Structures are given as C-alpha cells and as structure tokens.
Amino acid sequence: MPEQEQDQGQKQGALRRIFQLIPGILLCGAVTVISLGIQAAEERVFDHPYIEALVVAILLGMAVRTAWEPSARWRSGIAFSAKQLLEVAVMLLGASISFAAIVASGGLLIGAIAVTVVIMLAVSYGLSRMLGLKTKLAILIACGNSICGNSAIAAVAPVIEADGDDIASSISFTAILGVLMVLGLPLLIPLLKLTATQYGILAGLTVYAVPQVLAATVPAGIVSTQIGTLVKLVRVLMLGPIVIGLSLLVARRRKAGAASEGTSKAASISPFKLVPWFIIGFLVLAALRSFQLVPDIAIAPVTKTAAILTVVSMAALGLGVDVRVLSTVGGRVTAAVTLSLLLLLALSIGLVHFFK
Q1: 159 within some domain
Q2: Which residue has the higher pLDDT, 307 or 96?
Q3: Residue 113 is assigned to a structural domain of this protein
Q4: Which residue in 81, 117, 171, 189 is a FRET match for 134, CA 20 to 30 A apart?
Q5: Membrane topology type, per the record (predicted)?
C-alpha cells in the first residue's frame, strides 16, 4: 500500500507540473498563431514574407512583455517553451542533415572554428580584465561570448566557483544581445552579399546558442540553417575541453596555493553539461539520416514541426525579454559583452570570405 500511495503521489505531482505549463504554452501558441497569420498575409500581398513569423513572434512577445509582466501562473510554460521546445526543434533538425555535409566542409572550416573560439576566449578575457572586471567574471563573459552564451556560463560557473552575482551579471545582458543578433544578423546578407554557405558560417560563429542559430538562419533557407547548425555544434563541442581544462587549472591552483581551509572541492563534471541532450539527439538523428535510416518522406513533416516549434519558442523568448533590464546591468559588464560580440562579428565576417 505505501508503494502504491507513493506511485500515485508521483503521478499526481507529474500531472500537476504538466497543468502548470499549459497557460504559458497556450500564450506562446496564441502569439505564434498571430505571427503565422501575419506572415501568411505578407505572402498573399507581397508574394514573399519580408518579416518572417519567427521575427514577428519575437517582436510581438517583447511588446506584450513590455506592456504586461506575466505572473507565476504563466512563467513556467513560457520558460518551457523558450528552452525545451526549442531544444526539441534543434534535435529534430538533425534528421535533415547528413554527416556528408560535415565531411564536405573539410578540415579547414573545422580548424577555423576552433581558432576563432580560442582567439575570442583570449580577447574577451583580456578586454574584460582591461575594463576592471574580476577574474572569474571575465572568464564567464569570455566563455559565454566565445562558445554558447548562457549554457557555457552555466557549465563553467561551478567549475571556477563563481558566485551568484558574477553569474547574474554575466548572463543578464545575454538574452537581449541574443535577440538582437537573431533579428539583425539576416540584414547582413544583402549588405555583405553573402552566399547561403557564408551566412550559415557567420551565424554559426557569432550567435550565442544553438537554438538561436536555427532562428537566425531559417529566413535565409535550409542550406544556411544546416551549415549554421553544424558550425555552431562544432563550436559548442569545444566547451568540453574548455571546462575540463579550467577544472584542472583550478585544482592545480588550489593545491599549489595550499589553502588553509580545504572546504571547496573541485566541481564534478557531468557529461550532459558538456554535451546537452538535444545535441546528442541531433547527432543521433544525423547519423540515422547518414545511414539512410530516416526515410525521405519523413523529412518534410519533421522539418515543418521543427519550424513551428521554433516560432513558438521565439514567442516565448520575446515574452521573457524585459528591455528594462538594460538599466540594471553594470556599465563595464555591458561594455565587455558588447565589445566582445562586435569583435567576434568582425573576425567572423573576415573569415567567411574564405568560404564561397
């Protein structure tokens, strides 16, 4: 009987959590329907959507968030839509990609990605220190800017034992810049006369998170989306060696310093923190596609599902962005993150011209 009661309690708890997600998901769904309707109207009037549904969803979500702050009833569903649903969309994209694309990209591109990450780690860290930021905060900003935004910050923070203030400071501006990159990067296609391949590489090198690369490249077509995702995945996979290297460095410094109190232990490193589940899923689906275990007839529905989930997640992203946060971020942190991103963008623009 006690085991049955425990199982029943677990089921009720799971159902309660699901019901808590529904209001926020429905709100994101409503913004998505309006955004898709606006895109459909553009297609009828202009034969081509000048503003894609995912961009409309971000802007509309931000407008709603500026006028009204969602209560706790809505937040869990919005957060779920912004993170988990977008991660599912990224994973599904793997079914449309073959590893032949990675082989075709060649060692030159992979080497260029690695060199870019290493250069930007050094530049972002040095710039942050020049602006007077603390060592740990400078490391968080460098890793977030150079690898994958908040995910890199979350993975590195426990390893270097960063405090809550450093973590909050380093991630508080990332959401705003991430949205601006998704909205603004496609404008560079006509300005710089970028090919689909070049724009995919540029997006993969500069946009913070893997899901945001998907959002930034969808308007440019499937080729840019595939290449951008592959480039970004290579960039993200560098998080593993970086985190392991930092953990060894911290352990060595602690040992060499002979701290009087041995209270702090080296943080354990979970493989799932280094390589998130949705990236593993992406690689598995890409492998299945490469071995022709995913039928061609399934590609279109899977891609369409991923696209719709992306719009839902962009609505959630907009609903979670409070532009007023800019007033709470320190000037030096804002300068460090912004300048680092601009330098990364400049370096990446110079790099993509080698890949026609």
Answers
A1: yes
A2: 307
A3: yes
A4: 117
A5: Multi-pass membrane protein
DSSP 48-101: S-SS-HHHHHHHHHHHHHHH----HHHHHHHHHIIIIIHHHHHHHHGGG--HHH
Question: What domain range includes position 92?
Answer: 82-254+265-314+327-352
Q: How does pLDDT run across 37-82, given as a tens digit for each residue?
A: 998 998 888 776 667 787 788 889 988 988 898 988 999 999 999 8
Distance from C-alpha of 293 to C-alpha of 6, rounded to nearest angstrom: 41
- 156 near 126, Cβ under 8 Å? no
CB 306 within 8 A of CB 89: yes
Please report whether residue 122 resides in a domain.
Answer: yes
Domain count, the chain: 1
Q: Is the pLDDT of residue 22 over 90?
A: yes
Q: Please answer whether residues 245 and 251 qualify as being in contact, where contact means their C-beta atoms are separated by less than 8 angstroms.
A: no
Q: Where do the H-state alpha helices sit in the chain?
A: 2-46, 53-67, 72-80, 86-93, 99-130, 135-143, 150-160, 164-171, 174-184, 188-192, 196-206, 210-217, 222-237, 239-257, 271-274, 277-290, 296-319, 331-352
Is residue 90, in this structure, part of any structural domain at all? yes
> Per the structure block, which two tokens stand in for 174?
């990332």
85 contacts 106 by C-beta, under 8 angstroms? no
